[in-house]
Specification:
By secondary structure, this protein is mainly beta. The protein contains one helix and ten strands, in the order H-E-E-E-E-E-E-E-E-E-E. A five-stranded antiparallel beta sheet has the order 1-2-3-7-6, with no helix packed on it. A five-stranded antiparallel beta sheet has the order 5-4-8-9-10, with no helix packed on it. It starts with a helix and ends with a strand. The chain binds copper (II) ion.
């Protein structure tokens, strides 16, 4: 026996569920800066964040490199850099505690222990102590099911 009301109601419920699951993770603000190379907050440094060439998968531990320069483009060596971050719309931080473990070349640093445990918008916040100055830098990335979206 065909029950049109039941069918319509089921479709409506399915549509509502789909809409809720899409918006459940929050839609990032439209004016976010997704650039991976820009000045630090007060303009003291130029910071470039370099993700792995491919991926990473959700939940995969991986590394980034970070290039630190002054405003003339000269590499900044011997920096102390703390890495923090999280999902601003979820109110949680990074699932790991990534650290800068070594300076691979002048002004090029290795960040180990990165992991994105969910898809969606993550921010990465750096606290940089170098050349007798401190400054911060913020980067925004979006994790998709098949890896980081590249800007
Ligand atoms: Cu989250």
């Amino acid at each position: 026996m065909f029950k049109p009301y039941l069918l319509t109601s089921t479709l409506a419920t399915a549509t509502l569920a789909a809409v809720l699951s899409l918006s459940g993770c929050g839609t990032p603000p439209t004016d976010l800066d997704y650039s991976l190379k820009h000045h630090s907050s007060t303009g003291r440094f130029v910071v470039e964040m370099v993700p792995p060439a491919q991926g990473p998968a959700v939940g995969q531990i991986h590394s980034w490199t970070l290039k630190l320069a002054n405003t003339d483009g000269a590499p900044v060596t011997h920096a102390r850099i703390a890495v923090d971050g999280g999902m601003p719309q979820h109110g949680h931080g990074l699932p790991t505690k990534p650290r800068v473990t070594r300076e691979l070349a002048s002004g090029t640093y290795l960040i180990e222990g990165m992991k994105f445990s969910m898809t969606g918008w993550w921010d990465l916040r750096l606290d940089i102590d170098a050349d007798g100055a401190r400054d911060k830098a913020v980067f925004n990335v979006v994790m998709a099911g098949d890896g980081l979206k590249r800007p």
